[in-house]
Write a structure and sequence with these properties.
Blueprint lengths: L8 E9 L8 E8 L10 E9 L7 E11 L2 E6 L8 E7 L5 E8 L8 E4 L1 E2 L15 E3 L1 E3 L2 E8 L6 E8 L9 E12 L2 E13 L11 E3 L2 E4 L3
Parallel strand pairs: 9-15
Antiparallel strand pairs: 1-2, 2-3, 3-4, 5-6, 6-7, 7-8, 7-10, 11-12, 12-13, 13-14, 14-15, 16-17
The structure holds calcium ion (2 copies).
Length: 226
């Protein structure tokens, strides 16, 4: 697919929803940037998110670019800030611990001027590995020593997104105790605010306060990915 950036958009996936709030469906498109005019056979690359708000099948308005796509795709639409308009959720990296991006379609005066803006964290959130001003990423699933889950409280009226993370050394000193981090985010427009942050330690023999293999909330199935 040629979207006018000089390179084709490859492996295009889409989510259809009214992202602009005008009552007509829009298509969010996610694909990988080609190289030298053609699609490359690679699992990793630069992710491009674009939006068709006019229904002609081709992107118009702005597009958002992020490196590090690992089997990325348009994933879901969910209203995370209760303003009645869904946000776009992109699966940025698909693995045993899938990573999601949250993207807001910021409507300018004309539909064609719609911008795609990552929802950014307003302050440092080291427990999520994020610094102020970075795009929010959410992680689910688990692998050896680390597990994650994404939840949601207060949906649909006043949703709070919850990110859990647990880790412990796989063996050796400290392997019998794990750290558990719980971070709660309130989203408004293109900004996420940390409204609560907890860190506890517990023996590995004690069950986790979340289920890393079954994560859903805010109308989104986070793990396993759909
Ligand atoms: Ca629309
Ligand atoms: Ca919204």
């Amino acid at each position: 697919m040629d979207i006018g950036i000089g390179e084709p958009l490859c492996d295009v996936s889409r989510v259809v929803a009214d992202f602009t709030g005008d009552g007509r469906d829009d298509s969010a498109l996610v694909g990988m940037e080609g190289r030298n005019g053609r699609c490359i056979d690679a699992a990793k690359g630069t992710e491009i998110v674009a939006m068709d708000t006019t229904g002609d099948g081709l992107p118009d308005g702005g597009y958002f670019v992020n490196a590090g796509c690992l089997m990325c795709r348009a994933y879901a639409a969910a209203d995370l800030d209760a303003d009645g308009i869904p946000e776009l959720i992109v699966l940025h990296q698909n693995s045993a611990t899938p990573v999601y991006e949250l993207i807001d379609a910021f409507v300018r005066t004309t539909q064609e001027g719609t911008s795609l803006v990552p929802i950014m964290i307003g302050s440092d959130a080291p427990q999520m590995g994020l610094s102020a001003g970075q795009g929010v990423t959410l992680t689910a699933g688990g692998d050896e020593g680390s597990s994650f889950a994404i939840g949601c409280e207060g949906s649909p009226d006043s949703p709070i997104v919850v990110q859990w993370r647990s880790q412990h050394p796989v063996d050796g000193a400290g392997s019998d105790v794990r750290d558990v981090y719980e971070t709660k985010l309130s989203i408004t427009g293109t900004q996420a605010t940390v409204v609560d942050s907890q860190h506890t330690a517990q023996p590995t023999s004690v069950p986790l306060p979340f289920d890393s293999l079954d994560s859903s909330g805010c109308g989104v199935q986070w793990f396993p990915p759909e």
